[in-house]
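Data availability (excerpt). The following record was deposited with the supplementary files.
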Amino acid sequence: MRIVMMGTGTFAEPTFRALLAAGENVAGLVTQPDRDAGRKVGSTRQTGVGLASIAAAHGVPVIQPENINTLDGVAALKAFAPDLLVVAAYGQILKPDVIAAPTMGAINVHASLLPKYRGASPIAHAILNGETVTGVTIIRITLGLDAGDMLARVEVPIPRRTTTGAMEAKLGPLGATLCLAVVHQLKAGTAVGTKQDQSLVTRAPKFTKEMGAIDWTQPAARIVNHVYAVQPWPTAYTFLHRPGKLPLRLSVTEVTAGDTAASPHDIDLSPGSAAVAGGRLVVSCVDGPAELLEVQPAGGKRMAAGDFLRGTPLPDGSRFGPEGTPT
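Predicted structure:
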């Protein structure tokens, strides 16, 4: 069986490596074009060593079309004479001519427990929504977005304060193992598909740069989820407004919600208000406080909130919010 791998980034790399290590007949790789520093497009997908580099080390032919669905892209894919496409985080929606190119169809390694979180950013949306469990599902690729029959799935817990990047690193190897098992079943003719429950479908569209902005009018738990969901990209940020000072852009990389060492009477409860409580940096949310544990000032490095406070005192009236928030 001639397999063509389609994927980009660190989530796809374990699957590609597993196919190669298992001695599968990998006839080619389709991956996104290389991007120079000036053309990188923001994405939650981490780069890794690059699938093209792995392919070169194993003598696997590579194509990197801007759009695989064009006549040229489909022709290049068909030149590999694929029996099966294995897709993982490729980053392009496949049109009918691509799906029809392999004789045995195409399968997708998807980083969610389908039918929940169909789309480009399933891990990030699971963390954003406070899910405690996620996983990987192997599906047949159809014309509907992540709508094909499920061939296998595995569940894993989401630990507290886990970033999208860290969860992706856990799910990638699990997806590789699961995908390899399905490939063996397809070769043996024993693979069995299960229909997805349409009533449970949720969407996970691609994150945008603007989604990094923290909205302090949200509940504290939601803000915590948001901070970890948007790492490694676009990263959560806010602006610190101090009386008489220009707004300071601050990335937030570690945060927790809950009680503080200060009495509620010691803290302005309006969302976005900032205070130092027992040496800790506290921000009011709509339903209570959140404590910033690690931050990164614009142009600076990551640091513990306590270190930040030693260099940046917070006078009365200090607030967090959008850049244009008045002080």
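Summary of structural features: Residues 37-45, 261-265 have pLDDT under 50 and may be disordered.
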